[in-house]
Amino acid sequence: MAATPSATGKSEMIDLTKLSPEQLIQIKQEFEQEMTNVQDSLSTLHGCKAKYAGSKEALETFQPNWENRQILVPLTSSMYVPGRVKDLNNFVIDIGTGYYIEKDLEGAKDYFKRRVDYVQEQIEKIEKIHLQKTRFFNSVIGVLEMKQAAAAKLLQSQQQSAAVPQSS
């Protein structure tokens, strides 16, 4: 018996030994796809976390004597224009889908800290789901291998009994 994690978070008990090899193969394929999707989600979240953490770290480096300091302002990921820091206490933050907010230095640091914490919580939740799916996946593989080995042994014994000449 194995518990399958469902979308609602409740586990459903399935006796894997009562399923046919074809059903087990289908479940295995579905879980492979689900696990790939979970891995993709985790990769995306780790990227978001790194972006937020990088922004927070950049804010941590700001010094009070940087007013009027010349900097390079990115226009694209590989193109910059020169600029000057005019206001050390006014930051515009992209919060997604074309929306921006203005924050002072401490407010901006706090915003990125909260985003990093939130994304980390989501990563931990998805890692738990991934662990549950991995355990179930391994159970499916174990039962499938057991059934395949039993089928191979049965076939071998049938071939051996058919190959033995019967004496009259």
Kindly summarize this structure in a few lines.
By secondary structure, the protein is an alpha+beta fold.
Q: Which sheet architecture does the biggest sheet show?
A: 2 strands, antiparallel
What's the Cα radius of gyration? 29 Å
Name the average pLDDT: 89
Number of helical stretches of at least 4 residues: 2
Number of strands: 6
Which consecutive residue ranges, at least 5 long each, have pLDDT under 50?
none
State which percent range the strand residues make up: 15-25%
Q: Helical residue percent? A: 55-70%
The backbone outline, from C-alpha atoms, is rod-shaped
Give the strand order of the largest sheet, numbering strands 1, 2, ... along the chain.
1-2
- Give, in order, the helices and strands: EEHEEEEH
What is the SS-derived class? alpha+beta
Distance separating the two termini = 49 Å
Strands, helices and their partners?
Elements: E1 2-5, E2 11-14, H1 21-60, E3 70-76, E4 79-84, E5 91-96, E6 99-103, H2 105-163
Antiparallel strand pairs: 1-2, 3-4, 5-6
Helix pairs in contact: 1-2
What does this protein look like?
With 168 residues, the protein is α+β, with helices and mostly antiparallel strands. Helix content is 59%, strand content 19%. It has helices spanning 21-60, 105-163, and strands at residues 2-5, 11-14, 70-76, 79-84, 91-96, 99-103. The chain is rod-shaped and about 100 Å long. It starts with a strand and ends in a 5-residue tail after the last helix.
